[in-house]
Write a structure and sequence with these properties.
Layout (H helix, E strand, L loop, with lengths): L2 E3 L9 H5 L4 E4 L2 E4 L8 H8 L5 E3 L1
Antiparallel strand pairs: 1-4, 2-3
Bound molecules: iron/sulfur cluster.
Iron/sulfur cluster binds next to helix 1.
């Protein structure tokens, strides 16, 4: 699956990084995707937990 993170929408809460550190990392005040193509199921959990729905899984 492919992970998309909308930087404009991210509020930097850190939830995705806590849930799925293999795929997400904080960069300054925002999260970024370090593994855009992944099989990590936690990426989906992170998307579901993002308070502003900034993460899309395709
Ligand atoms: S969970 Fe959403 S708002 Fe929080 S850091 Fe990740 S992308 Fe940003």
């Amino acid at each position: 699956m492919r992970v998309d993170l909308n930087k404009e929408e991210c509020i930097g809460c850190g939830a995705c990084v806590s849930l799925c550190p293999k795929v997400f990392v904080m960069k300054g005040a925002k999260a970024v995707v370090k593994e855009k193509e992944t099989e990590e199921s936690c990426a989906k959990e992170a998307a579901d937990s993002c308070p502003v729905n900034a993460i899309r899984i395709i």
